Fold this sequence. Notes:
The structure is a single chain. This protein has 1 helix and no strands. By secondary structure, the protein is an all-alpha fold. The protein has one domain (about 5-45). It starts with 7 loop residues before the first helix and ends with a helix. The model has no long low-confidence stretch (mean pLDDT about 75).
Amino acid sequence: MIHIKGDKNIKVVVQIVNSKFSDDYKSYFEAGISLIKNHEKRNSLAN
């Protein structure tokens, strides 16, 4: 979170951007994490 003193409008915009980003990309991050976990499982099984 970016804190800017004396300008509430910028802070609000940053919050909106952050929430939009998390809404749009949360599923992508979760999919990526599950792919990495599956890949690590496969590697440990191979070893």
